Amino acid sequence: SQQGEEDPQALSIQEGENATMNCSYKTSINNLQWYRQNSGRGLVHLILIRSNEREKHSGRLRVTLDTSKKSSSLLITASRAADTASYFCATEKWQGAQKLVFGQGTRLTINP
Amino acid sequence: EPEVTQTPSHQVTQMGQEVILRCVPISNHLYFYWYRQILGQKVEFLVSFYNNEISEKSEIFDDQFSVERPDGSNFTLKIRSTKLEDSAMYFCASTGLRDRGRGYTFGSGTRLTVV
């Protein structure tokens, strides 16, 4: 299996604090992507980091990738109540067909 | 912003009935996918479709499942004889050429309930 675990499974913080979610995977990858899912809704692509990149920023999001440890982290700074959602990491490997393989996700709750 | 459109948003069907879930991917995308998410669980890959044929399928995608791109626009998932355990949210997704630095675009999903 390509994918591993995300931790924590659930995270609850106060508005304004930073939220960090971690993801581990098992095999070599071409890129790792983070998606957000509001309750019962579709998945929205947040950010993609290639296997030769170590860090990437997009607005309040910061993603790191450590291919030696096969792990990634997503940091959301200055959290807002609207950031409440589930966050999934997904890995992509171009071996034959390309596809995303998702982790279990982290349920993030931002308390106002 | 281009969207992936899925219909219907909800479908309730009797066990043993056939269902067809419909998707309109983004027009200039090349790769099309179906994923499913059982309530409270992770998103699972079902099938990928490229150049008018299945490029990969998971163990979940057995003989009861089929996909079609009948008219160059729609992309459908058919479940021939639904089972209770097919109840899930089904997501269609599409993406373009490799390594364009962009992710996949997902539809809003079809919630399938088998009773």
Structure summary:
The complex is a heterodimer of chains A (112) and B (115). With 112 residues, chain A is an all-beta fold.
Describe the structure.
The complex is a heterodimer of chains A (112) and B (115). By secondary structure, chain A is mainly β. Chain A has one domain (3-105): Immunoglobulins (Immunoglobulin-like). Chain A has strands spanning 3-7, 10-14, 19-25, 31-37, 43-50, 55-58, 61-66, 71-76, 85-92, 100-102, 106-111. In chain A, the strands form two sheets. In chain A, strands 2, 4, 5, 9, 10 and 11 form a six-stranded mixed sheet that branches. In chain A, strands 1-3-8-7-6 form a five-stranded antiparallel sheet, with no helix packed on it. Chain A is globular and about 45 Å long. Chain B is mainly beta and 115 residues long. Chain B has a single domain, classed as Immunoglobulin-like, CATH 2.60.40. Chain B is 0% helix and 50% strand. Chain B contains no helices and eleven strands. Chain B has strands at residues 5-7, 10-13, 19-24, 31-37, 43-50, 53-57, 65-68, 75-79, 88-95, 105-106, 110-114. In chain B, strands 2, 4, 5, 6, 9, 10 and 11 form a seven-stranded mixed sheet that branches. Chain B has a four-stranded antiparallel sheet with strand order 1-3-8-7, with no helix packed on it. Chain B starts with a strand and ends with a strand. The relative contact order of chain B is 0.34. The A-B interface holds A 30-31, 33, 35, 40-48, 50, 88, 90, 94, 96-105 and B 31, 33, 35, 41-45, 48, 50, 55-56, 89, 91, 93, 95, 98-99, 101-109, 111.
List keywords for this structure.
heterodimer, A: 112 residues, mainly beta, Immunoglobulin-like, 6-stranded mixed sheet, 5-stranded antiparallel sheet, globular, B: 115 residues, 7-stranded mixed sheet, 11 strands
Topology:
The complex is a heterodimer of chains A (112) and B (115).
Chain A: E1 3-7, E2 10-14, E3 19-25, E4 31-37, E5 43-50, E6 55-58, E7 61-66, E8 71-76, E9 85-92, E10 100-102, E11 106-111
Parallel strand pairs in A: 2-11
Antiparallel strand pairs in A: 1-3, 3-8, 4-5, 4-9, 6-7, 7-8, 9-10, 9-11
Chain B: E1 5-7, E2 10-13, E3 19-24, E4 31-37, E5 43-50, E6 53-57, E7 65-68, E8 75-79, E9 88-95, E10 105-106, E11 110-114
Parallel strand pairs in B: 2-11
Antiparallel strand pairs in B: 1-3, 3-8, 4-5, 4-9, 5-6, 7-8, 9-10, 9-11
